[in-house]
Design a protein that fits this description.
The complex is a heterodimer of chains A (about 850) and B (about 230). Chain A has 3 domains: about 5-50 and about 245-495 and about 695-825, no CATH class; about 60-240, no CATH class; about 505-685, no CATH class. In chain A, about 55% of the residues lie in helices and about 15% in strands. In chain A, a hairpin with a 2-residue loop joins strand 7 and strand 8 (about 160-170). The relative contact order of chain A is 0.11. Classes of the chains: A alpha+beta (about 850), B alpha/beta (about 230). The interface of A and B includes residues 289, 292 and 381 of A.
């Protein structure tokens, strides 16, 4: 026997007779969608990372207070990494008897490595994109510098001892840090001029940024090589660590994309399992004949498995091709929203699509297929000889195993995988039992029902085991679709909440206490929407319960960096917006000497409730007891604090005030007025950063919408195919009923009741499972607040009843229209 | 019983088949000892439930006995595992069934080719076409079972049974699903082919006329030879 050739021929014959269409369709959808999503999310992520890298003006930056050793730069050159350098420092500029504390930035010739600068020579309408900084001898300045120093384009500007010519106005600088402490208006010069300014002396406070860009693998290697050599004042910056608001948005989007992929794969897996079950049942007789003609058990198994493998490979290849086309179309649809250069498709994502296809096919199709191996050849004489079904452990174990591996592959989080997996398993077992009990109850109440209802219910009760598995299959499909929809809605809502229409786009700091009343009045008169004014007192945390903090923290931790610099301390009576006390209680006004610590810092410094913290503030010691631990959202553009003291604790120390506020573009001139009126106050403009952030979120939202439509489409297609694969018995039984004299309307009504009930019960169960899984997902995977989605409680049962009812009735429609004998002969 | 033929191709001793049911052990076949000579034709007759189909499935190696032994072509079927029996079926045995048992997705030609394909025979197609011509279906090669009448389907089944030139042909009520006229034609064809190929024929039937065309009749009642 030459099994492979025979398998090929049998596959061809089966496909010709339409036996494989549902299987083919389900597998094609699984591979197409997983490839499309894998390719799309991979490209989108790389595009976004490239774009967000603009915020650093490079892929990776080493920040340092001194120049870094030459061998580091040599190593980067060896790894073919492009390099640029910037040096930032504050300097007082004097022109036309006006003084201005400016933020000077000296940039090397290759700056910026990623992104671009925007400049203008007159107004904002004629912006020019620049891929390099100013030439030696020239300075580019922010517009506020011109007005503050009474300068015009072409005027000389002296920085330290170096006389430069103001040639352009900077309107956009990619790596302008959202950091509150690098605030002054920008003056950008060429690095070659830096020496001649004479500003940099030993001991000067200069911040150097060494920027690198190149291949991801080379960057990773460089990062690994350089990290152990960093000293305390040096730090590696990348997008996830240094722009947390973007990092978390990207991470969530990535997880959502992964989730969509799992959703489609699970839906398709269910359809594959159902289609294979049908395939197996329809091949029992053929297998018996083959066995009769001398096929060994292993031959039979090989014959069918190899057919499935060939089908899997061909379908996966086709699915990968289609997936590629689909993601190209998605990018085309999003063309206007995306950056001009989109990262190329990764070959790995295509390979992953192939792997997914084969894995899903084996995981979901193999267990039902194994049943064919056990077909007795004596079945040719006695059709009642049914092979035993494959062990439930094998059937569900393999499918669950595959789903578990997929969830883990996307989340890369073992804990979360285990949580979702166990929750899903327990829910399924409990619900399976519940459906079984419901069916028993229904059986008992049959005698009290009308004929139509009884016939409809009997359709479900005849083979309760099959009904339970069908209900669970439809439930899983509906759950998957509901999850995809709800998470997407909440994700987008959450982003909008994070950045509402009038999110603060400016920070004002260094406001002296005596200026506060007049500034508040000014804000009110100008109609500026502002947040609370927080007092800021600079202080350093030195001891926790009498133990120096340096002995407590581990190297490179968040806690370590917090102990090396002064922290901004504040006090307030009420818990600030977006802050949440997670351990302990917020104070009542009369309690003095208490402090509330931010959760991550508390974890890093091992701070517990009741600990005594010692701070050095302006040379004096200050002790406070930890009365609460807070979580807060760093990704909102609002002032956030690691340490908040109770009222009465900090008032005796000198400090300034800080606030954030929203200023629309057309009111920008107010800034100059404010700066003039309050010269010591520093205004930090983050509106450009915000705009960029909003654009990215809009792009992600659009992408996610398209993915949802895709998942829903796949879900419905597969749901319909899955119902079709359960129709054989029903069609046969309906034809029998017709031969006994059942009229069309009775049959139609029976079908409607049967399928609608099937969908309705699946819908109700889907609600319970989705809520459980959403809770697990939100609290573990997406770190979002969980709240019950009440509309699902109505929508899912309705969608289930309607879609399963419609697909079922459509599938059996011809039974009521054609002569029953034909159906019986064909079945 | 001794036959005038030279060699016994099937020998059974004290063959029995029983199944356990909730009401105790049910004996379907008991104490069947028989010898079938090569080239002989035998009819197994009896009423419904007498154990005819069980006996044929044991003799063909489709099922295993609870007790006793079966020798097919000098080899003990009872000591073989399922794969060994499958190999024996492939090399020695042909089948014709009451319900034709054609693969619905395959054409007439493909159905007939199947036993040879399973052997890896490269001339499967030619041999199958030859036999289909012999049974009068040369115009129906590409038709699927659904497009054929009952008589035509059984002719395809006959072609499939003889294409591998089996030593023994088992026929289970081959005319049971056909009208008497068509049935008679099929039986004529069956005996013609049997003679041409010198095949041993084991025929299960409850039709006395048909049984009489065989050289020997074995009667079963309540699972025993009578």
């Amino acid at each position: 026997m030459k099994p492979f050739g025979l398998a090929l021929r049998m596959l061809w014959r089966d496909s010709r007779s339409g036996e494989l269409s549902i299987l083919f369709l389900a597998l094609l959808i699984a591979v197409t969608s997983s490839t499309a999503i894998a390719l799309f999310s991979d490209r989108l992520e790389r595009t976004m990372t490239d774009q967000t890298a603009e915020f650093l003006a490079a892929d990776m930056v080493i920040s340092s207070h001194a120049t870094i050793p030459e061998p580091w730069l040599e190593k980067a050159a060896q790894l073919n990494l492009a390099q640029a350098q910037t040096a930032e420092f504050s300097s007082v500029l004097i022109e036309h008897d006006e003084l201005l504390l400016a933020g000077i930035k000296a940039v090397s010739a290759d700056y910026p490595l990623r992104g671009f600068l925007k400049t203008t020579t007159s107004d904002y309408s004629t912006e020019t994109i620049e891929h390099q900084g100013p030439e030696p001898g020239f300075a580019w300045v922010e517009k506020r510098v011109l007005s503050a120093l009474k300068l015009n384009i072409g005027d000389p500007l002296t920085v330290g001892e170096k006389k430069l010519v103001v040639s352009k106005i900077i309107t956009y600088e990619p790596d302008k840090q959202g950091d509150i402490y690098s605030l002054s208006p920008r003056v950008m010069i060429n690095k070659q001029d830096l020496q001649e300014t004479g500003v940099i002396q030993p001991g000067s406070h200069v911040h150097y940024f060494f920027q690198f860009s190149g291949e991801q693998s080379q960057l990773t290697e460089f990062k690994r090589w350089v990290k152990p050599q960093l000293n305390l004042a040096q730090r590696i910056m990348d997008i996830h660590e240094d722009r947390p608001e973007l990092g978390s948005a990207l991470n969530r989007a990535k997880r959502y994309l992964g989730l969509s992929s799992i959703v489609v794969i699970i839906i398709s897996g269910v359809a594959i399992a159902m289609a294979t079950r049908r395939y197996t049942e329809r091949h029992l007789d053929a297998t018996a004949i083959l066995r009769c003609l001398g096929c060994k058990q292993s031959d039979v198994l090989w014959l069918f498995v190899s057919q499935f493998l060939i089908l899997g490979l061909m379908t996966s290849a086709l699915g990968c091709g289609l997936g590629w086309v689909v993601q190209e179309m998605l990018f085309e649809l999003l063309r206007n929203l995306l950056p001009q250069t989109i990262a190329n498709s990764g070959v790995l994502a295509v390979f992953f699509g192939m792997m997914t296809g084969m894995t899903v096919l084996i995981g979901f199709a193999l267990p039902p297929l194994l049943r064919l191996k056990r077909v007795s050849p004596a079945r040719v004489l006695r059709r009642d000889l049914e092979p035993l079904p494959s062990s439930a452990w094998l059937v569900y174990g393999l499918a669950f195993g595959i789903v578990g591996v997929l969830i883990w592959r996307y989340t890369e989080d073992l804990n979360m995988t285990a949580t979702i997996f166990c929750a899903g398993l327990v829910l399924l077992l409990v619900l399976g039992l519940l459906v079984y009990l419901l069916l028993i109850l229904a059986r008992r109440s049959l005698p009290f029902m009308s004929l139509n209802l009884r016939f409809g219910l009997q359709g479900l009760l005849r083979n309760s085991r099959a009904t339970v598995s069908q209900i669970l299959a439809f439930t899983i499909t509906l759950v998957a679709m509901a999850l995809s929809f709800t998470v997407r809605t909440d994700l987008i809502e959450n982003w909008h909440k994070q950045l509402p229409e009038h999110a603060a786009n400016h920070f004002a700091l260094n406001i002296f206490p005596e200026q506060l009343p007049s500034l508040q009045k000014e804000f009110k008169e100008q109609g500026i929407e502002g947040s609370q004014f927080f007092p800021v007192i600079r202080g350093r945390l030195t001891e926790i319960n009498g133990v120096p903090v340096q002995k407590i923290v581990s190297k490179d931790s968040q806690g370590e960096s917090a102990t090396h610099r002064e922290l901004s301390l504040t006090w307030t009576e009420n818990l600030p917006e977006d802050n949440k006390v997670i351990i302990g209680n917020w104070w009542t006004p009369e309690k003095k000497g208490e402090v509330s610590v931010e959760q991550k810092l508390a974890d890093s410094l091992k701070i517990r409730l009741g600990d005594q913290l010692l701070f050095i503030v302006g040379g004096q010691q200050l002790t406070a007891t930890v009365s609460s631990i807070r979580s807060l959202q760093w990704d909102t553009m609002k002032p956030n604090f690691y340490m908040i003291f109770s009222p009465g604790s900090l008032e005796s120390f000198p400090g300034t005030f800080l606030t954030s506020f929203y200023l629309p573009d057309n009111k920008k001139t107010v800034l100059n007025q404010l700066v003039k009126q309050y010269p010591a106050m520093t205004i930090l403009e983050v509106d450009l950063i915000l705009k960029q952030f909003k654009t990215i979120l809009t792009q992600l939202t659009e992408a996610i919408n398209y993915l949802l439509y895709f998942a829903l489409m796949a879900g419905f297609t597969v749901l319909f195919s899955a119902i079709y694969s359960t129709l054989d018995n029903r069609i046969y039984e309906s034809a029998l009923l017709r031969t006994f004299g059942a009229n069309r309307s009775l049959l139609r009504l029976t079908h409607i009741i049967e399928f609608t009930l099937l969908g309705l019960v699946s819908g109700v169960l889907a609600v319970v499972i989705s809520e459980g899984l959403l809770y697990a997902l939100y609290s573990k995977a997406l770190t979002m607040d969980y709240r019950p989605t009440y509309y699902l409680w109505i929508a899912l049962p309705l969608i289930g009843a309607f879609s399963v009812g419609l697909a079922g009735c459509w599938g059996v429609r011809h039974v009521v229209n054609i002569p029953p004998l034909r159906v019986l002969r064909d079945t | 019983m001794q036959t005038p033929f030279s060699r016994n191709i099937i020998v059974t001793e004290n063959l029995g088949k029983s199944v356990k049911t909730s009401g105790g052990t049910l004996h379907i076949l008991s104490d069947i000892s028989l010898q079938v000579a090569s080239g002989e034709s035998i009819a197994i007759a009896g009423e419904s439930g007498s154990g005819k189909s069980t006996l044929i499935s044991l003799l063909a190696g489709l099922d295993t006995p609870t007790i006793g032994s079966i020798n097919l072509n000098g080899k003990s079927l009872t000591s073989m595992d399922e794969d060994g029996r499958a190999a024996m079926r492939n090399q020695l045995v042909g089948f014709v069934f009451q319900s034709f048992q054609l693969l619905q997705g395959l054409t007439a030609l493909e159905n007939v080719m199947l036993p040879l394909e399973l052997r890896g025979d490269k001339k499967a197609k030619d041999a199958a076409i030859g036999l289909l011509q012999r049974v009068g279906l040369s115009e129906r090669l590409t038709h699927t079972p659904r497009q054929l009448s009952g008589g035509e389907q059984q002719r395809v089944a006959l072609a499939r049974a003889f294409v591998s030139k089996p030593a023994v042909l088992f026929a289970d009520e081959p005319t049971g699903n056909l009208d008497s006229k068509t049935g008679a034609k099929i039986i004529d064809l069956l005996f013609e082919l049997n003679q041409e190929n010198n095949t041993t024929l084991i025929l299960v039937t409850h039709d006395q006329t048909l049984a009489n065309r065989c050289q020997r009749i074995i009667k079963l009642a309540a699972g025993r030879m009578v």
